[in-house]
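Predict the 3D structure for this chain.
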Amino acid sequence: MKKIFSTALGAMTSLSVVLSLNSCSSCSQGQGELADFQESQDDTTLIVSAEVVGDMIQNISSPVEMANEIKSSGVQFSQSTLNAAGQEGKYETSFKRAVNLGVYAADLGYINTFGKNLVVVDYLSSIKRLADGIGVGQFLNFTLLSRMAKDNTNLDSLKQLSVSSFNEIDKYLREQKRSNVSTAIVVGTWLEGIHITGSVIEQTKDKGLIDRLGEQKNIVEILQIVIHTYARSDNDFKALATEIDKLKAIYDNVRITTEMGQPVTKEVDGMLVIEQNEITTVEITEEQVAQIIAQIKSMRNSIVE
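Done. Predicted structure below.
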């Protein structure tokens, strides 16, 4: 699993330097299908650099990786934990469509990992409609994805195609200077993944997953900065900023320490390679776990409702 679960994205001071802000005190919400959520292109534009958004996305584990961690805990598949398919029609703003596209992406990763191909098509349909709603549906080959979903022997290929499709969506949005839309999708994916993880922790008290939950402190710090950046000009992000602040306050009391472990040697392409291992320790109480899960549920439910 990627290092979202063990390290932050470098020093927070470095991230702050990369964030690029112009004056945005008078930014307004637009009207129409996409205008209500797109960044304006005049001199009041607020910009988060593509590098920051790209690094954030690369360091947040894909839905498939998160689901693999959950599956390894031995828990059974539970569809009731997910956002029900067919809900996309009630998401009428571009922000709601984008963030719930992320939610459904996490759900799809969870479903794919457990091989529940009978429900995959329903979720793919919801994803396709939401993607069309924010102008990125061209990157989802619905016919191919649906056909692969019905064939249990193609599950690995389905996972790969699903992930690559979302990577293409992210790349396109950043090229179009719509990184706020990409950020909303990432937030939705992350929230749903942690929501599912929290539900499993409540059932199993799995120590590994509790540690993974605690290590989210690093990503919460990063998300808080990026969300607050967009909150300067977008009311949806402003509401989200209030909630991420509450979550950050809980995580402030979680302690993460990292120390260097013993180096490990292995052979790669006929060459001897030495890798330095890191040992991460998470100090988190049962009360903190419960508080984090409750706040994540509250944030997630406000998004999918």
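Confidence is low (pLDDT under 50) at residues 1-36, 38-45.
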